Amino acid sequence: MTSEERASRRLIAIAEVVGCPVETFYRPESDTNPANMTWELLRLWSSITEPRTRERILARLRQEAGVGPASAQAAE
After folding, report:
1. For a Cys staple, 15 with which of 19, 22, 42, 48, CB 3.0–4.6 Å?
2. Are 25 and 39 spatial neighbours (Cβ–Cβ below 8 Å)?
């Protein structure tokens, strides 16, 4: 399997998880397009390899979303 085929399969899997057609990722970029923001989030996340950094980012995301332990601590 070529790297293009692997990338295509990954993009299909991501589109299924996100709930959008693959073509969404090829549309012109817009900062406010939810699919583009989701794609950017996943791309950036996959570039982070340090577990502690990922934990810190997840805690902040949970706080912003108002879910999880971080949000309970912030409410106190």
Report:
1. 22
2. yes
What's the confidence (pLDDT) of residue 48? 92
Are the CB atoms for 71 and 65 separated by under 8 Å? yes
Asked if residue 60 lies in contact with residue 54, where contact means CB atoms within 8 angstroms, the answer is: no
Q: Is the pLDDT of residue 33 over 60?
A: yes
State the pTM of this model.
0.49
Task: Count CB-CB contacts under 10 A for residue 19.
Answer: 9
Rounded Cα distance, 54 and 52, in Å: 5
Token pair, residue 4, equals: 């293009």
- Cα 57 from Cα 46, distance rounded (Å): 12
How is residue 36 written in tokens? 């583009």
